[in-house]
Amino acid sequence: MQVIRHPLISPAPGTQRELVSLHYGQTGGQKAYIQASLHGDELPGMLVAHHLRQQLAALEAAGQISGEIVLVPMANPIGLSQFLLHAHLGRFELMSGENFNRHYPDQVAAVAQAVESQLGADAAANVTLLRRALKAAVLASPVDTELQSQRRTLMSLSCDADIVLDLHCDAQALMHLYTETPCWPDCEPLARFLGSRLTLLAQDSGDNPFDEACSQVWWKWDRHFGGRFPIPQACLSVTVELRGACDVTHELAAADAKNIVDFLRWRGLIAGDKPALPDAVGDARPLAGSMPIKSPVPGVLTFLKNVGAEVKAGEVLAHVIDPITAEVTELKSPVDGLFFARDFLRFANAGMRVAKVAGREALRTGKLLGA
């Protein structure tokens, strides 16, 4: 294993944060990139990374890693350090207010212009050329803040990978995945290995989150060149939602790490007998069909349904109770679907999103991700 330290721009004299990447195997074959806790307060991924590094070290010592695997066990030192009055605030940078998982720079047009004259009829050669140019563009992109330097570092480590796994979690949730629609054929086996109940699909959900910044360059280049050159979907990039924020146990993390290793072995990055593809326990649905449940009033929040329930349109999921008037407001599902995530807070503000139900029909438009 090679350990590389990546210093970020110093935000103030006397301070310096860094990202640390762990590199297993060798370059020249397939590459997988895995990062944990881009939202600094989402901790299940860090424990999965702890178990992954143990398994990967043993596999490397046995000479079984046939590709390159890069692991960033803590992807957000800025967010990890943000506390206010004992509350961990790891989703938004306090300086800018920006979500750590949004606004990754778009290099599609610049790279297309740089390489167009060199593209040809060989798809593999086109992939190699585009990856090399993309990495050069990422490394050359200007940054002048600590947050921008963190984004550039993460993209420089991941932009040339065949597989990108971004480990997150929800508040209280089932195991579920987010990926772009062109990635679904390659993602479906991963969903099986992880035992994911749900994969939410979109093509450009808005605000350029990390996973889409890695995968969407390929279908955008194919569209840009209008089919004149063969350009495959060369990156499977997936946001892996490792259940809920409190699901931080060795039992779950060890199993999740093993499942990721099994998937990488199935994909050929790890030598040995190819594991059997597990049965599917979930399905794919449009992200535009994932319906947020909002509370129109403030009050004490109590849920009547647990995550994992299949619900019908109009079915009551929760009550919001006004402690002064004793008025009870029912929060109902707008669609038939899977009740897959809910908040862990039990006081709702007016307009607060408190839960999500995944339907099968695309009903929403515009930006599809939450704040």
TrEMBL record:
Family annotation (InterPro entries): AstE_AspA_cat, N-alpha-Ac-DABA_deacetylase
Keyword Hydrolase: yes
Annotated Succinylglutamate desuccinylase/Aspartoacylase catalytic domain residues: 29-110
Species for this entry: Pelomonas parva
Record-given protein name: Succinylglutamate desuccinylase/aspartoacylase family protein
Entry keywords, A to Z: Hydrolase, Metal-binding, Zinc
Cofactor(s) recorded in Swiss-Prot or TrEMBL: Zn(2+)
Domain of life according to the entry: Bacteria
Presence of keyword Iron-sulfur: no
Pfam families associated with the record: AstE_AspA_cat
